[in-house]
Amino acid sequence: FVIVADASGTSIGAVLSQKGRPLTFLSKGLNESKKSWSTYGKEMLAILEAVRCWRTYLLGRRFTIRTDQRSLRYLLEQHIVTPEQQKWITKLLGFDYRIEYKSGTENKAVNALSRRAEVAITLAITAPYSNLWAKIVQATEGDPHLGPILRNIR
């Protein structure tokens, strides 16, 4: 999976992709206090919101985060000096990721999502899908002991 995240003065945006194909999008307006955050802080917020939103896709998998904020590329190597940085790092613990720099001009889709003037909502095109129930039903029907019982019940 790849997350591409971006922030503007008024909004944050992100795209979750797999094998180069977008799966879902995030666009969210910032409240007044967050609008006054530094660019670094807003870009970090975009990453954290994306990881929080898509954690079901990301837990247990290696993924890449792409951002146009160069200093975030060294997030895990930086000396943590503020309580905010400590909180941000804590929220990413347990995830297996790497951060790459990608210039803003190469992030057209996510730039558009983060530039929406109105307060936006999270948009999901797909949701995690599990076919576990179908596998259980299929295994039960094929079982030499449970299959006949199931057929008699129906």
Automatic annotation (TrEMBL):
<keyword id="KW-0378">Hydrolase</keyword>
<dbReference type="InterPro" id="IPR043502">
    <property type="entry name" value="DNA/RNA_pol_sf"/>
</dbReference>
<protein>
    <recommendedName>
        <fullName>Reverse transcriptase RNase H-like domain-containing protein</fullName>
    </recommendedName>
</protein>
<keyword id="KW-0540">Nuclease</keyword>
<dbReference type="GO" id="GO:0016787">
    <property type="term" value="F:hydrolase activity"/>
</dbReference>
<keyword id="KW-0695">RNA-directed DNA polymerase</keyword>
<dbReference type="InterPro" id="IPR041373">
    <property type="entry name" value="RT_RNaseH"/>
</dbReference>
<feature type="domain" description="Reverse transcriptase RNase H-like">
    <location>
        <begin position="1"/>
        <end position="95"/>
    </location>
</feature>
<keyword id="KW-0255">Endonuclease</keyword>
<dbReference type="Pfam" id="PF17917">
    <property type="entry name" value="RT_RNaseH"/>
</dbReference>
<keyword id="KW-0808">Transferase</keyword>
<dbReference type="GO" id="GO:0004519">
    <property type="term" value="F:endonuclease activity"/>
</dbReference>
<keyword id="KW-0548">Nucleotidyltransferase</keyword>
<dbReference type="GO" id="GO:0003964">
    <property type="term" value="F:RNA-directed DNA polymerase activity"/>
</dbReference>
<dbReference type="InterPro" id="IPR050951">
    <property type="entry name" value="Retrovirus_Pol_polyprotein"/>
</dbReference>
